[in-house]
Amino acid sequence: VRAVGGEMAATASLAPKVGPLGLNAKKIGEDIMKNTKDWKGLKVTCKLVVKNRVATCFVTPSVASRLIRALKEPPRDRKKVKNIKHSGNITFNEVVKIAREAQAKSMAASLQGVVLECLGTAVSVGCTIDGEHPATIQAQIKAGRLKCPEK
């Protein structure tokens, strides 16, 4: 379920998913709100695991959400501020850390591949890495000028 961090998930979108399982959509919405508190204002994916008619919620944020969180921007009001530009700067080490967290969901064979994926996401988010455009850092990694940690 995609939800905005720290906000009540739309009961209308939850009801058809959890209703047939005999669960209360409002209660699950509150659980999602509680678990996504530290992702305030960012869209994150929540994984609902239902066992014995008890739902547990796990937050599985995307690489884009992690990058925006790493920019340390103040939370914004989604209803008032639209089409925001994320023009901040992130260190390369932080990108590697995000890549390690996202490695389980990635299809890349090595950590270097996951780092390249994260840099591609940084291009679409619009932020810079160590003051440079992410595409130039991708080219440096592919040329072998910038080393990526193995593990």
Protein described:
This protein has helices spanning 11-18, 25-35, 63-70, 92-102, 111-125, 134-143; strands at residues 2-4, 43-51, 54-60, 89-90, 128-129. Strands 1-2-3 form a three-stranded antiparallel β-sheet, covered by helices on one side. Strands 4-5 form a two-stranded parallel ribbon. A hairpin with a 2-residue loop joins β2 and β3. The chain is elongated. With 151 residues, the chain is of the alpha+beta class. The protein is 42% helix and 15% strand. It starts with a strand and ends in an 8-residue tail after the last helix.
* Helix count, DSSP H or I runs of 4 or more residues: 6
Give the total of beta strands.
5
Quick check: average pLDDT?
78
Give the biggest sheet.
Answer: 3 strands, antiparallel
Terminal Cα span: 31 Å
Strand content: 15-25%
Radius of gyration based on Cα positions: 18 Å
Helix content: 40-55%
Which regions have little confidence, pLDDT < 50, spanning 5+ residues? none
Strand order of the largest sheet: 1-2-3
Structural class: alpha+beta
How would the global form be characterised? Answer: elongated
Order of helices and strands: EHHEEHEHHEH
Secondary structure layout plus pairing:
Elements: E1 2-4, H1 11-18, H2 25-35, E2 43-51, E3 54-60, H3 63-70, E4 89-90, H4 92-102, H5 111-125, E5 128-129, H6 134-143
Parallel strand pairs: 4-5
Antiparallel strand pairs: 1-2, 2-3
